[in-house]
Fold these 4 entries.
Entry 1:
Amino acid sequence: MLPGAIQLKKKFMVIDNKEKIIILNGQEFHCAMDVTMHYIGGKWKTVVLWYMRKDKKRFSELKKLIPNITEKMLSLQLKDLERDGIVTRKVYPEVPPRVEYFLTDFGKSLIPMLEEIARWGRHLTEKKGKIVDSQTKKKTKNS
Amino acid sequence: MLPGAIQLKKKFMVIDNKEKIIILNGQEFHCAMDVTMHYIGGKWKTVVLWYMRKDKKRFSELKKLIPNITEKMLSLQLKDLERDGIVTRKVYPEVPPRVEYFLTDFGKSLIPMLEEIARWGRHLTEKKGKIVDSQTKKKTKNS
């Protein structure tokens, strides 16, 4: 436990009465949901983390796995995730330098939640979606 | 299953090779994570849904429960959630009209995932955060 942290009683953990707030790493949050979304909110973070859940990834590998993300946006997401202690990177002194990103132990604590998020999307896709070859997508859009 | 949907084989559900894409409600997605985040991504949706998980809520109740959200932003989030079939509303012909928002059956399918997201934030708060009276927050920030 960090210095200054107090042991919290279970009954305080959902703060629906708004008379209490959470202070975490110097920031204020109004509920547990708010805390989690600080770490994984935004359009891309969950997707980036998803592809790192099993193994380290290089920047170029992530870019290839997430075709719709721009390099700038991917770089920004990785910087945020590093700042928050979720992702770390190892730089190999090669020419050109090789950089690998991987989840910290703290980052790995997100995996069960990420699996639950992916599971919901998979279930919906199975029920209502279809999977097509990416080459045929233009045809699909116009049909 | 919707017309045109196909039965998907399990092996296709995580689309890491990028040769397949998901088509769902006329939109393209690159993985299951991407699908879920379309529905719950953004700063506020999970928080709004969290407060509706057990019971219907009026706009003013949600506003009170989420002090940091603006009325415009709350209205926007509710419109998105309605458009996506997650939330519906009932208007009572009173003066002034009473409007109640509640989860659809589809929206209720999100609850286990929302609980997992909140659980992670609760766990982190218990480990590293502290809960203080909201009246004392200025003091806390400066200490």
Entry 2:
Amino acid sequence: MKFLIMEGLSILERTPMIVSLLVKNLPDSWIFQNEGGETWNVFDVIGHYIHGEKTDWIPRMQIILGEGDKHFVPFDRFAQFKDSKGKTLDELLEEFARLRKENVIKLRNAQLDEAALSKKATHPELGEVSLSELLASWVVHDLTHICQIARVMAKQYEATVGPWKAYMGILNR
Amino acid sequence: MKFLIMEGLSILERTPMIVSLLVKNLPDSWIFQNEGGETWNVFDVIGHYIHGEKTDWIPRMQIILGEGDKHFVPFDRFAQFKDSKGKTLDELLEEFARLRKENVIKLRNAQLDEAALSKKATHPELGEVSLSELLASWVVHDLTHICQIARVMAKQYEATVGPWKAYMGILNR
């Protein structure tokens, strides 16, 4: 399926609301427990979304469309552990919603045509990538972490569902 | 984690809105393509939620709490292929929201205490199950299919993300 800017926008602009509906006003046990080991809890995932808004998607679009050096700065997958410290979940949700709103406006204002979408830059590990691949990845990244949040939450009831665990694929991943 | 009725209710009552935000007003390509083979598309999943509202969760709660035979009727995992025929996605989303609202009211009105939550009935395959296990499974089932919808949608961009596919766990499941 081709990347279409209007489709991408209509998914990207809904994500903060979807995430907020999933996690807001729930007891801490749903938010601060992870899937075990080094996995992330819901709070970590929201912080990761925020770091993406600040350093990944739109800044990389600007590198691709700009006149300067066409190399991306590596993305820090662990920035949220420092950046989210001392903040509440509601503060993170508000920050994510605000940054996403600003970034969707920047994306809309860029008025990307086919020529712009096919422009390229160099990813530190993946090599040459195009703007349409970057923006499609932004959409998929949103969906990935919605799925992750639902899974992390579901796992809190792993024992609570009793014998139904056998039917719940999400609990066995 | 223990099943707490107020937590369960607060998740169950949000699901139709979350699902609607995820899938409403998108082009058909996002809604009617599956993950390949016999897998379900987004439209199928919404129909499956509806069939659960009609025949699974609250009807089974009523069997557990009732005075009659304590055996569940088997759940039809494929009913939506017949029942959703000829309907639009918006019709399914409205039907799901309406049925869920009614069922949340029934759950609230049941005023379940610990004694009620520990009552049991017999599942056709899983054997003896309690009301708290049934209700926790309802919550996990909601989350499972939110994750599935996000994954099915993400996979539509599998080729579109280019080399980023390597980073997207959701595309490699």
Entry 3:
Amino acid sequence: MSFDLANSIVLLERAPAVLEALLDGLPADWTAPNEGPDTWSPFDVVGHLVDGEETDWLPRARIILARGANRRFEPFDRFRHLRSNTGRSLTDLLARFAELRRRNLRELRGFNLGERQLGLTGEHPEFGTVTLAQLLATWVAHDLGHIAQIARVMAKQYKDAVGPWAAYLPVLHR
Amino acid sequence: MSFDLANSIVLLERAPAVLEALLDGLPADWTAPNEGPDTWSPFDVVGHLVDGEETDWLPRARIILARGANRRFEPFDRFRHLRSNTGRSLTDLLARFAELRRRNLRELRGFNLGERQLGLTGEHPEFGTVTLAQLLATWVAHDLGHIAQIARVMAKQYKDAVGPWAAYLPVLHR
């Protein structure tokens, strides 16, 4: 499917409810463990998604739409949440994510983007020129990738418990 | 984590709400495409989960708990849904899944399972002897694996739209 703004917003606005349905109120047995050293727990992933709302997606869209001389994005700190969320509860993080997402989608809708704006470009620190449509498509795919990651990390907590069925569960081997 | 009945039920009972939050009412652009020949769309995956509720998890638990002479499970038809769900709506399938899951968890709770019952065994047609605890752990991990699959299949619909960011999105390459 090529990029479609309405189809993107309809998924972006669901992510907070999906994460709440999956995680809010779960025992820490599910939400605190990760996949091993230097990997993220479900709690960590939600913290990363909060960071994206605060410092990545909308700030970059604003840079593109401002059409200034310097359209280079700030590098996104993918580890900021590991320092800033110590001691917070998952329920708090989920509520923060929902509030930020709501606010960001309100701003996105307010841009009234048409084909011309979606083709405007910014400079990614590694990739070079990227379009606003690519940025917004990535926002959607990034949500979905992290929902998949959370489900996978939780599944792996039962890697031993499933016994021989592990052979039939590819999610345990990624 | 070793198998824990309460921790398992708390996830099993969330699955219908997670799938509804993620899928119900989405345009078919997201729910109908798959990952290529002989792969499943999000619609197909929900159909497969319905089949599991109807013919797999509880029927096998009942065989184990009956402690009869023949504890061999019926093979699970992983393709039944592809024939039986033609023409149904995703909303209907999600509602059916929610109803079956509710009913099955009511029956599961009614078993009042303790350690002794969780150690009882059945005969898997391929793996041989498996315990009830392994069956129930697999039910949980199977849900999570298919939630991850649905998110991945949807993310891949934007594989081209994300442009160079595909390099940063491992979910697009699985």
Entry 4:
Amino acid sequence: MSTPIEELAAALPEGTVVTDPATSDAYRRDSASFCAAGTPLAVVRPTTTEQVQAVMRWATAHRVPVVPQGARTGLSGGANAIDGALLLSMVRMNRIVKIDEVDQIAVVEPGVINADLSRAVADVGLFYPPDPSSWEMSTIGGNLATNAGGLCCVKYGVTADFVRGLEVVLADGEVLRVGRSTAKGVAGLDLTRLLVGSEGTLAVITRATLALRPTPEPALTMAAVFDKTSDAMTAVARIMASGLRPSMMEYLDKPSIRAVQAYRDMGLPTDAEALLITQSDRGPLAAADVAAMGVICEELGAAEVAVAEDAAESAMLTQARRLVNPAVEELGATLVDDVAVPRARLVDLLAGMDRISAETGTLIVCPGHIGDGNMHPTVVFDRGDAAAAERAQTAFDAIMRLALELGGTITGEHGVGLLKRDWLRTELGETSYGLQRQIKSVFDPLGILNPGKVL
Amino acid sequence: MSTPIEELAAALPEGTVVTDPATSDAYRRDSASFCAAGTPLAVVRPTTTEQVQAVMRWATAHRVPVVPQGARTGLSGGANAIDGALLLSMVRMNRIVKIDEVDQIAVVEPGVINADLSRAVADVGLFYPPDPSSWEMSTIGGNLATNAGGLCCVKYGVTADFVRGLEVVLADGEVLRVGRSTAKGVAGLDLTRLLVGSEGTLAVITRATLALRPTPEPALTMAAVFDKTSDAMTAVARIMASGLRPSMMEYLDKPSIRAVQAYRDMGLPTDAEALLITQSDRGPLAAADVAAMGVICEELGAAEVAVAEDAAESAMLTQARRLVNPAVEELGATLVDDVAVPRARLVDLLAGMDRISAETGTLIVCPGHIGDGNMHPTVVFDRGDAAAAERAQTAFDAIMRLALELGGTITGEHGVGLLKRDWLRTELGETSYGLQRQIKSVFDPLGILNPGKVL
């Protein structure tokens, strides 16, 4: 007699269900630090919606938890294995079904890599803005599940802003289609936005209709170096209040600048407190835009301002930002935070971070999407040193507490997953948390969809 | 001994609760045709969140239905009275609490008139884009409840796209705060978007944090007259696929053109089949943008193309669109529809409308936000003629059926209310409808919030 998992394997095409631990071990974790990962029952890699339905019917029948996964580039443990769970890897459902230039939409399966979609739509003069740092690896399904952000959000918005409709498979295996393919629509409650960002706790996304825009015009870049963090923050506020609409507005603090310069000699001023990098992508108007941003920085005492005159100079100026992640990883193990505060409170957030760094004796490197008030304070520690890891956790918690005190959020774009589950309840308060738990139960009455994550 | 409603009246400031039928009668209906309106128990006009809480606690205790109302400019009966209900008019909660230029947000009470907010933020160089036709009268709370659209949606999006956070009062009187004041945030399920567009069926909105943008640059307008509707539709598709980003793209069909010309002699060509009016608001680039749109229209055989060279000419060209509503109201009673279809299916929608008009023997006037595929086919009839009213209803239903067949929606921006309640179930399908009903029950277990509307 065969076991239930053997029955599922037999009902799906050869190779869809993998129980070999050598393979399934590779799927146990996403890219988060400090998050537990259990031992899964199996990895399932479906290629069709019907197969996902079969998996969920089986999971419901056998009360087996299911953890939907994309490319596992997430930073909050949302895709980590749970003991005895199916890891439902969606990476093989990776077709771009349709790109429609008149309605400016794309219909895609969840396993499509963000960069593949971005390039495919660019080929026909269109633009899919959401650009998380992981865009060369992460899947659209993962981006949808976490409502991923990125560098261009300051002008264009986050993943949710580009979702028109979804096809999902519910916990019991039924297919649900929500949203629309039209530009506007207000028929009933917005279940699409409820599903986006729900981190696999409500349903399994099997197809998405995404909104596209025309290709933006060429961008130019400005970089400004400040000796005082507070001056840089004033520049951010002044630029955002000026009516200029930067298509990128990134920030490196002193430890970030030093990490990048140590990683690659770019001639960065390692004594500077802050580096601000902004862009305008308004084509013929971009030069005037970045010049105006530069003037604001100069008026606020920037030590140095560089305004690119062409694409090559722009690429050089933005390279420092792109190198932060690999540069910081060279320093040690990292615990990457993702808080967001109102722009007006950024100066308090950064001052508080210095205090937390001193009090906990930790190195905190703080790059961020400063135009959105969304910072990535990253605690660097030695993974082999238990005391250091504990200090890192203390600093990490203190940063979230500070963000909430400043009217902000514990997660701007990375999601809750396992990493911030306790903090979510603090941020939401009991009334909102209770409603969210009840909505979870409406979608997943047996609690088999990514249990123990988020809520 | 006092009655329950007398107790409520006594617990609230003088004049808050009005039971005099002469007054409450004036609150019984919104602006929809063909929608029943019951006899309310009272009108309640609170001025604070605490008063709304007191009302909802009382309503829960006495199982009395509550119908939240704004300015009652809605077109689907969503604010119509229910027998024995409290009409909870939010128009006295009309303070603009805060406008923040650095974070580009406004915090407002729900009774603020859209135009008042738009003007207040314009005074400090900011822009609140959502611009329903009712903007001079309708409230932000009503706009939020229906997720209102408008003319500028084609470039800027709908009301929901500008909502960061809400304070609402739940059915049991508890206050719930959802969303955030930061630009980004992904902490838990998106209850904000669930509440926006829920037409008073989930909670009572008492405060909103709205996102603003910098003031757009000056706009210029193009108008093109077509002898063939299909050529105009091809022009719409071509302009939208060209990479141009019109800030307005409106359409008048032949009956609309004739109605406007009859209402005011603007020299409109009454034999033309279609009038397309587009704008670009890219300041120094607007002239080139509208010229390019004009070239596309000419290439597609437009009989006449006018491109404005300044604001005065632009205003003249857009006036025809602004006069459609009063002009059509001169023709008779109207049943205003609000379907949306993918842009590629507009030509089929308009052809189908001609067929429906002929088959039902009704006059259908069809202006619309054509750039969004969101049309307002308006059936004109004689209210005193029962047979004519029945034909109007038949035509109205046929238009919604057609929109669904074309992959569209029964409501692009007006909402479901009473008018389209049966059709909502058809559009959603049983699975989605069932989930929405369950979510309604999570928020409103006693079913006292706007019962019989939407779901």
